[in-house]
Amino acid sequence: MNYTESDLIKIAKRLNNKKRSYLLVNPLQAKHMPVSPRRALEMMDALAFKIHQRLCPAPVDSASAGGVPSANGLDSANAAASTRGATPAGSAVSPGDDILTLGFAETATAIGAAIAIRLGGAYIHTTREILQHADDRLEFLEEHSHATEQFLHSANLKELLTRASHIMLVDDEISTGKTIINTIAALKAYFPEIASKNIFAVSVVNSMRDADISRFAALGINAECLLHIENRDYSEATPQIEERQFIDCRGTAALSSPDGAAYATVVLPQGEVAYAATVLPQGEATCSATVLPQVKAPSSAALSDDTMCMSATANCTTFTAPICISGKIDPRIGVSASAYADACTNLAERVIAVAESGLQRSKSVLVLGTEEFMYPAILTGKLITGKFAGTTVMCHATTRSPIAVSDCEVYPLNAGYLLRSFYSDSRVTHIYNLTYYDTVILITDSEIDISPACSDLRAALGVNGYGKLYPFIWSV
């Protein structure tokens, strides 16, 4: 299909960001707003198809991508870039092992993964996490972001760059191209041979001005996108809203709220119940978990299906202990795209097998990712959609991004919740637009004890009620 501005852009107000007061929220991205996983992947595949056409002009199956036309505003830049060695449209190059796709955290990790899986080769994404056992890293800036520092862990990077003839830098939005240029500069300092590679700046939306487009052309950078729009200051178009309070679901008052926003508080009663996480029959890795129930829970031995009953709202809700599923491979350090696709599919199938009894009884399901960890949740949602006919499945993810919320009808984010991050108890994470779901499946790749964050998530879900929560940890 041909995507329009109304399909891909909703304007929201950033909090605590003096560089840019607005945020372009993509309702199909499965990040800030819940969306059908099929619709999210269709959009990502449409972008992958456009790149495939650039690299390999032979006819391919475009049923899911809809044969999206090129963004005319970038044609001149691409033509100029091709004269400097970048791959022009129509070159007879088959996607495959010589492609490296690099996705930008936080919001474009799933887009990058979907493109890499479609094109082949290798996939790596930037991160704001400091990884254990990964001391070497490149640093660069995403200048307009709420969190400007980005890292690229370099343990396998030189090998990936050496193999690649084509490098895809994938973001959800490109407005000035500064993040792309900063990344290329960091890569050139680390690996000067990148100057001989064919570099593509790939995005869902591109709003570069003529001067920025010319700058790309001079650097030999091709650009590809689903939608090219005029670059303008959207702060003037941001709806005039009366902001709602965030609901602070953190179980401790030790964290300070970000400046400039108001918060209501949900306080969980004291009294911890500790128990071991579910261990799958195949001998999966074990992990400990601590829960903060709102009522005195029976011993875990007395519970069926490893559930505990809470009364966070008038609705009776249940949750399983965190379930560890092995087989994780981490695109933060670079992976084979095909191996990542297989690993994510295996994870999704095992998640569905564990949660099948609950899914069979559910009319509404939410599959939730965490911060940079998005693609496996979206894929799991798609497989659930295919397996359980008549079930409404939605996906989105927690995020570091603080964004204003309002119940204004034309505003995209109607409710916001503060949780402790699944990656650090001392960090705040946000989730938006929750509603009631019969089943909620959380999938994370965190390596810390996630019980505090799970406790906060239960409180957030409890505002609207929910049936059952299954938390899954993808572990090595």
List keywords for this structure.
7-stranded mixed β-sheet; single chain; 476 residues; alpha/beta; 6-stranded mixed β-sheet; Rossmann fold; 10 helices; 25% strand; globular
Helix/strand layout:
Elements lengths: L4 H4 L1 E4 L8 E4 L11 H19 L19 H8 L16 E5 L5 H11 L2 E4 L11 E5 L7 E5 L3 H7 L2 E9 L3 H13 L7 E9 L3 H9 L2 E8 L17 E3 L14 E3 L7 E4 L11 E4 L15 E4 L6 E4 L2 E3 L9 E2 H24 L3 E7 L4 H13 L4 E7 L17 E5 L7 E5 L4 E8 L6 H12 L3 E9 L2
Helix pairs in contact: 2-4, 2-9, 3-7, 4-8, 8-9
Rg of Cα set: 22 Å
Distance linking N and C termini: 38 Å
Helical coverage, percent range: 25-40%
Secondary-structure class? alpha/beta
Quick one: CATH class of the largest domain? Alpha Beta
Residue runs with pLDDT of under 50 for 5 or more positions = 62-72, 83-94, 252-260, 265-316
**CATH architecture tag of the largest domain:** 3-Layer(aba) Sandwich
What is the 3D shape? globular
Q: Count the strands?
A: 23
Question: How can the largest sheet be summarized?
Answer: 7 strands, mixed
What's the average pLDDT? 81
Binned strand content: 25-35%
Please give the domain count.
2
CATH topology name of the largest domain: Rossmann fold
Task: Explain what you see.
The protein is of the alpha/beta class and 476 residues long. It has two domains: 5-236, Rossmann fold (3-Layer(aba) Sandwich), CATH 3.40.50.2020; 246-474, no CATH class. 25% of the residues lie in helices and 25% in strands. It has helices spanning 5-8, 37-55, 75-82, 109-119, 157-163, 178-190, 210-218, 337-360, 375-387, 451-462, and strands at 10-13, 22-25, 99-103, 122-125, 137-141, 149-153, 166-174, 198-206, 221-228, 246-248, 263-265, 273-276, 288-291, 307-310, 317-320, 323-325, 335-336, 364-370, 392-398, 416-420, 428-432, 437-444, 466-474. Strands 14, 15, 16, 18, 19, 22 and 23 form a seven-stranded mixed sheet that branches. The chain has a six-stranded mixed sheet with strand order 9-8-7-3-4-17, with helices on both faces. A four-stranded mixed sheet has the order 11-10-20-21, with helices on one face. Helix 7 (210-218) links the parallel strand 8 and strand 9 (221-228). The longest helix is centred in the last third of the chain and has 24 residues, at 337-360. The chain starts with a helix and ends with a strand. Mean pLDDT is 81; it is low at 62-72, 83-94, 252-260 and 265-316.
